[in-house]
Amino acid sequence: MIKLAVYGKGGIGKSTCTANLSAALALLGKRVIQIGCDPKADSTINLLGGKPVIPVMNYLREHDDEPRSLEEISAVGYGGILCIETGGPTPGLGCAGRGIITTFGLLEELKLFERFKPDAVLYDVLGDVVCGGFAAPIREGYASKILIVTSGEKMALYAANNINSAVNNFRDRSYAKVRGIIMNRRNVDGEEEKVKSFADKNGLEIAADIPRSSDITKYEDMGMTVIEGDSGLEVSKRFISLAQMLIDEDNE
Amino acid sequence: MNLTARIISVYAADISGVCSALYEYGGMTVIHDASGCNSTYTTHDEPRWYDTDSMVYISALTENDAVMGNDEKFISDLCDAAGKLRPAFIAVCGSPMPAMTGVDLEAIAFDTGNRTGIPSFAVRTNGMHSYISGAGRAFESIAVMFSEPAKKSDAFSVNILGATPLDLSLNGTLGSIKELLRANGIEVNACLGMGSSLDEVKRLSAAHADLVISSAGKLTAEYLLKEYGIPYVIGIPFGGKFSERLTEALRGSAASGKCTDIFKECRKTGYDIAIVGESILSSSLAAALSLEKDISARVVESIGDSDMSVLLDTDISAEDEDIIEKELERSHTVIADPLFEPICRKPHFIRLPHEAFSGRCFSKEIPNLIGTELDKSIEKVKV
C-alpha cells in the first residue's frame, strides 16, 4: 500500500498537490483515502466538488460525542476517493496536534483501513512538524514516505529544511523517510537551481516538477482538481507521472 | 449525567492493569508519569507489592519534559536502568500527561530495544480506560513477543488466561482452579498472570485449548486462536455443575478446534438476582446459580471494558452510577462489591468484594467460589 505524507510551508500548495496526486492515483485505478491534517480542513474540498466534508473535530464539538460510523465523518469524492479532514479545535483554544492524534485513534477504532481496504493513503499535513501531533502521520503504521512541497522561495525552502531536519531526528524510530521533493513552481528567479541545490545538499530527489499553471486555479474555482478538469494538460501529466512512479515503487 | 460517580468508587485504570499483568515475568515496567504516581498503580492496586519484588518504575516526567518533548531523557533513563537491572523485557506505558502531548511510546520502546538489545514494547494506556484494557493488551504483548511454536503436550492441557489479583484476589482462587482442572484430568500448560513465568509464555502454543477466566485474557485468547489455532472457552469454574460443563466444553473445543460458548445453555436469564461487576466473573456466577439453584440472574457489567460477548438478553452494560442505581431496582437480590451498597435500595445485598473496585478494603472477605466451594456461600442467596 502507498502510504504518503505531504509536508511543506503554509500556502505552498500542499493541498493542491495532494489532491491532484490522489486524483491521479484514482485515475490510474487505485482506491485512495486522503486525510487532511490541518485545522483549516480544506485539503479535500476540490475532490468533493467544492462541498466540504464535516471535519472530525467539528463533529466532536457539535455532537459532544464520538461518531459511530465512518460515513458520519467522511465523504466520497472524485474517482471514489474517501475524503476525511481532522479539522481543529475552536480557534485560539484547545490543541490542534492532539486533535490529529485523537482523529487517528478514532479512525483506528472505526477500522478505516480494514473496511475501506485502500491501495493508497495520503496525509496532507499542516505546514511544519511543530509538535508530536503533527508528527503523528509519519509514525509507524501510518505514512512510510514523505514528500516535501516547496518552491524556490526562501521561506518555502527554509520550512522544507526544518521538515527534513525534524524527520532526520526520528531516524532511530522506524518513522517515514523523506522520499523527495515536489517542486511547485512560483516562477521566482533561479527557482530550479535553488531547489536543486537544497535537494542535493540534503541528498534528496526532486520527485516531481509542477509548473505554475492558471489551469489549477481555474479548475479549483470550479471545485475540482486539474486532473478531474482536464487530465490531458501538461500539469496533469506531471501529477500522473508522480502517481505512476509511486505505484511502481509500491509494486517493487 | 454521563460517566459520573457521585457515591460509588471507580475501577482500577489501564496502567494498573499493565503492572498487574506483567508483575511476575522479570521484565521492567515503566510508566511515563510524574514522580510519586507509582503508589497508585502498585501500592494501592497490587496486593503482591508487599511480598513479591517486581521492577515497576515511574519515569518522573516533569512539566518541562512534557512541554519540550524530552523523549531522549526518558530513553536514556530506560537504557541506564536496563543496563543495571538486565530485565527480561522492557514495557513502557503512558499516563494522561504523555497521552495529551502525543508521546509516541511505541517509537520510544523501538529505540530503547535497539539500544539495549532487550525486547521492548509499549502498551497503549492513557489512564482513562479500565484495568481490563491495560492488562489485556499487556498479556497480548508478551504472548506476541515470547510465544513460540511448540509441539502439543502429550497429556490434555489448557492455558489459563487472564489471571490477575485485580479480578481473582490472592485468596486461593487460582490454585483451586488449577486443582479442579487437574482433578478432571486436565493439565495446566501455562497460566498467564499469577504464578507464571516467561517459560510458560514461550510454551503457550503447546496447549490444546484455552480457558479465559477474565476479560483481561480475551485478547490473548484471540491471538492464540489466530496464530496457533487454539480454541478457547470462557468462564470461571464456580460451583460443581458449572465447573463440570466448563471442563466438558474444554474437551469439546480441543476435539473440534472450535471455541465453545457455554453461557447460553447454562444460564437462566431473568431478574431475580443482579450480579454487578466484570462480565466473565459475573456470568460464571450467574451460570452457577442457575445450575445449582435454578435461579435466574442478570449481569450488570459495570466496567465498560469487559468482554461483552458473554452477555445475554437480560444483561446490561452500564458505567453510569445513575443507570446502575435504577437497574438494580429491577432485582430482589443484588450481588456486588460492598461499595455498591449505598446505591442499592434492595434489602438483599450480598457482598462480593472485587479488588479492582475496592482495593484491599474488603479483600479478606473475598470468597473462593471455585468448584463446590460455592456451595458454602450459596445458602446466603435468597430471592
Short description:
With 252 residues, chain A is an alpha/beta fold.
SSE layout and pairing:
The complex is a heterodimer of chains A (252) and B (383).
Chain A: E1 2-8, H1 14-27, E2 32-37, H2 56-63, E3 75-76, E4 82-85, H3 96-109, H4 112-116, E5 120-125, H5 132-135, E6 145-150, H6 154-169, E7 177-184, H7 191-201, E8 206-210, H8 214-221, H9 226-229, H10 234-251
Parallel strand pairs in A: 1-5, 1-6, 2-4, 2-5, 6-7, 7-8
Antiparallel strand pairs in A: 3-4
Helix pairs in contact in A: 1-10
Chain B: H1 14-21, E1 28-32, H2 38-44, E2 55-58, H3 63-68, H4 71-85, E3 90-94, H5 96-101, H6 105-116, E4 120-123, H7 131-146, E5 157-161, H8 165-168, H9 173-183, E6 187-191, H10 198-202, E7 209-212, H11 218-228, E8 232-234, H12 240-256, H13 263-266, E9 273-277, H14 279-293, E10 297-301, E11 316-317, H15 321-328, E12 333-336, E13 348-351, H16 355-358, H17 374-378
Parallel strand pairs in B: 1-2, 1-3, 3-4, 5-6, 5-7, 7-8, 9-10, 9-12, 10-11, 12-13
Helix pairs in contact in B: 1-7, 4-6, 7-11, 12-14
In total, the number of domains of chain A comes to 1
In what order do the strands lie side by side in the largest sheet of chain A?
Answer: 3-4-2-5-1-6-7-8
Compute the number of helices of chain B: 17
CATH fold label of chain A: Rossmann fold
Question: Which value, in Å, is the CA radius of gyration of chain A?
Answer: 17 Å
